[in-house]
Known about the structure:
Blueprint: E1 3-6, H1 7-11, E2 52-55, H2 58-69, H3 74-88, E3 98-104, E4 111-116, E5 130-131, E6 134-135, H4 138-142, H5 153-164, H6 174-182, E7 184-185, H7 188-196, H8 198-201, H9 205-211, E8 223-224, H10 227-239, H11 242-245, H12 248-259, H13 268-273, E9 277-280, E10 282-286, E11 289-293, H14 300-311, H15 316-319, H16 324-344, H17 359-367, E12 406-411, E13 417-423, E14 433-434, E15 438-439, E16 452-453, E17 456-457, E18 475-479, E19 482-487, H18 495-507, H19 513-518, E20 522-524, E21 528-532, H20 541-546, E22 550-554, E23 561-566, E24 569-574, E25 581-584
Parallel strand pairs: 21-22
Antiparallel strand pairs: 1-25, 2-12, 2-25, 3-4, 3-13, 4-9, 5-6, 7-8, 10-11, 11-18, 12-13, 14-15, 16-17, 18-19, 19-23, 20-21, 23-24
Helix pairs in contact: 2-3, 3-5, 3-6, 6-10, 14-16, 14-17, 14-18
Bound molecules: 6-diazenyl-5-OXO-L-norleucine.
Residues 401-402, 404-405, 423, 425, 443, 446, 470-472, 490-492, 495 line the site of 6-diazenyl-5-OXO-L-norleucine (DON).
Amino acid sequence: MRLILLCCLLANPVFAQQSTDQSAPESGSDERRAAVSLVPQTDAAVPSEQWMVSAANPLAAEAGAAVLRQGGNAADAMVAVQSVLGLVEPQSSGLGGGAFLVWFDAATGHLTTLDARETAPRAARTTLFQTDGQTMGFFDAVVGGLSVGTPGTPALLEEAHRLWGNHNWAQLFDSAIAHAEQGFEVSARLASAIDNDQEKLSTQPATADYFLPEGTPLSAGDTLKNPAYASTLRAIARDGAGVFYKGNIAQGIVNAVQAASQPGLLTLDDLAAYHVIEREAVCANYRGADVCGMGPPSSGALTVGQILSMLEPYNIAAMGPESADAWRLIGDASRLAFADRGLYMADEDFVPIPDLLDINYLDERATLLQREDALPSVEAGSPPWDQAALEVEWGQSWSPSRASTSHISIVDAQGNALSMTTTIENGFGSRVMAPGGFLLNNELTDFSFATQADGRPIANRVEPGKRPRSSMAPTIVLRDGKLELVVGSPGGSRIIGYVAQALIAQLDWGMDPQQAAAMPHLVNRFGTYDLEQGTAAEGLADELQALGFETNVRDLNSGLHIIAHSNGRLTGGADPRREGVVIGK
Ligand code: DON
């Protein structure tokens, strides 16, 4: 049996509001309860027994499913999914970007990660985003060539396939090449992203020609072809990812970066030197499971791991998702973790990082949560390490949440699992389009624009060859060495909150993957509690304010793609806020 769960069919009922049980006692912590249910009403998940793919676009998920149907594994399917995403969701990810991948090998039980983060050009200096000693405005830095880091995604496709793939490499690009040559239908989400970004897109002529032909933004339902992208994929299919990093395609990237409205520093040498790094997974234990993900240069697994470890002593399950006390604990654990993130987390190949998941340290941090109300203030802690803490960042790093980045979750028929978050950073990245038919990232703006704070160097400052700190948190959860969950989301630094919440929803509150993906969001990074607009999360505003939190109702645009494995069966979730689907067999 083949099933396709279209998220969009589930989109409307998921935030259905229910009235509370009027007979519930009205004393103690029961007073601090949302007046509506935070458990989304979704159709019961239909399990699959062999394989499953969940991704942000139906054509991309189908390309992966086609590979899995032909006996390809999760690594093979990912190559097909990513190459189609780069075409049909070009605002979010693609060949011109970077990604982090977590891999679970069913045969050996081994978990590992691939770091395909973009790197700063060799000519980059700590003052990259400063003019006359002042930090640049965010979008002044984003748009143009200056923000472009050396892309990692093409090398990742090849490395994942080399390590684990078993399908014919060239055929993995067939779907993407066919859609690029024959044309695909512009989705509503892409059309709206173009419409909202016309001003910035039109600053780069090649980009404007593609997305705003004759000055008119593409509309949903338009047929769009990308012969240049097809030709790039044909070259990679034939000769491998090396053709991207040397020769005509590489020269085209360098030319585009240098000719952009704000010329950048990327050179042919930078491209030729790019390499994917295999790194050990970073794991934290939560409710008897190992929650594993991407270590530095991503802050994803460390921050999610800190949040969960600090919540471990508290009975979040008994409190339930409508309890303001549960959200007080989650929100303040998150604030404490974000304080450590701001101070300590960066590319560990350049800066020393203390043991941020040390269990004694986190037990001590967790005791700070033993109170009735919100923490009045939050500071980074003093985790153990054997080197002097020289790298310091104080203050909040401003991380807007935009409609870009994508997450792919796949489990194959052998039981291998892949969790990959992939990005060009901002929506449409730097807005610079390479002649090869793909957008270039603006990942360098994930570095700190400032070099120092209070006279001390900032850990995440720009340095040549360094990888900017990320929040991407592709996650795989194992229990007793067996696969339990594959989770991840876009969302800038709110990714950490979305992923932590999806894990708590499943591990504490027993939600299925579709409910966890659809659940209204509550995210706290730096003190203000973000509550998702138009959802039951708004119903917690008064209680959270009474506890001492500032609240802010806003759009919270996650893109969770989840697969759960239990008793040999797979169930999936695709975030109804995006266009994704789950396909399983
Ligand atoms: O690596 C990061 O953390 C960011 N560049 C990811 C950007 C993102 O998720 C955009 N949001 N939807």
